[in-house]
Prior knowledge:
Blueprint: E1 6-11, E2 18-22, E3 28-30, E4 33-35, H1 39-46, E5 60-72, E6 81-84, E7 90-96, E8 99-105, H2 108-111, H3 115-129, E9 138-153, E10 169-171, H4 184-199
Amino acid sequence: HRSTAVLSVTPNDSGHGVTLSLSKGDPVTFDAVVLAVPPRQVARMLGEPARYGIANLDAYDAYPIVDVHLWHDGGSIGLDFAAALESPLQWIFEKSPGYLCCSISAADQYLQMSTDALETLAWEEARSFWPALRGAKRLRSAVTRNPEATWLPRVGAARTQQRTSHPAIAIAGSWTDTDWADTMESAVRSGRIAAESLIAPRPATRSGSPGRWSPP
């Protein structure tokens, strides 16, 4: 179901399977679901997260990432990616010869900077790192801004677990409790943990025990 938003997630009364209400078409039922979305969307989809043993969704703050895309006639820089030390760019990725993506994390001060200024800044910084680019011409450029790219828990707050109290619902995301910072690697770890939580057998618990999901 591409280009289709999930409006809500409703577990079946039997405790097995979930029904998704979609922005297009009729509701669809699945055996299980992994909610790989930011904290606010998890809360919105489930309505009452605490009912599923999900905690601390309101204990996160969002931080932006700004990416500047540069196309030039200077050919390859000879590296797949590089860390830009003492530079606002932080990371420079070569997507293909003549195409660089410059990434700025925790980019609060750059989020409101004009597109022209960001493109000029990134190009000048990239040229300062690679002498071969100093004679190159910038052909075109673009800027993407994600104000909620990363989610960090506040000091002292526990991160949200992937396993929920419902056997058919799990959570994934780089912001969840993976023992890693909110990174791409953390996102991969969270997906594996979420999948395992749906596949692995659960210990038997008495009906109504703390942490056990039960239909209303």
